[in-house]
Design goal:
The protein has 246 residues and is mainly α. It contains 13 helices and two strands. Helix 8 packs across helix 9. 30% of the residues are buried. The model is unreliable at 40-51 and 86-92 (pLDDT under 50).
Length: 246
Amino acid sequence: ENSASALASAIRAYGEEATAKVVAVLRELLPQAYQQPSESQKYSDLESTTTFGVAARRNRDNDPAVHTNQDMFSCGSLSARFSTERLVRSDGCNDYGFARAKEPWEGSDGAIHMVKELAAVAPAAAAEFIPQVADLARLASFQHAYNMHESIWRGLPTLASSLGVKTFKSQYLELFLPPLFADLRCGHQLAEAEAGKCISALRDAIGPRIFAGRLDAQQRAAMESDPNILPQKGQPLGVDGVHAVA
């Protein structure tokens, strides 16, 4: 995220030349999550609403093979406690040889931050990537998909502001609504929380009545009952912390 911010500063300083280079990198990085290997095959006998949905994810998290005979790591360090490569038997605190290859989804995750920062300085250049970001928000075929969704929902209100609320509402809002509301019940608590905050921010930016007019019946029901959706300013909380409906 900080790297993406630095690239935005470079665009401000160097203009179109830097913009062209960032756009080229985005075209390469943003689709990489589609190449992310799926872990769902091992758990394909389970029923779920997504390829790697709640049931499969819970079974993976409780699979002894995932947590047995793995490298141990020291508190405050990403180095393994016992470094066989260096033939050093230590507690890991001074062994900083940690490295691993970047996962494909992490390339997309970084690109999502880049799109947000690009929109702040060159919204026309960022516009071509918005539909693909929305499509990535629907991707749920691998273990860390919802970590990527977190990044999307965390940055979407800022992205909408940079593009212009009117432009975002008319051209892009409906692309994001289905995956955004789906993530309120995805089983990944951090993604659920970010989705709720994102919905709240978009509602307040667009206007509650206009925003509600774009929703289907199920989505409107979630607006009234889902605890992850924050109340409007000045609206009292109801029973169990859910915002009251007038």
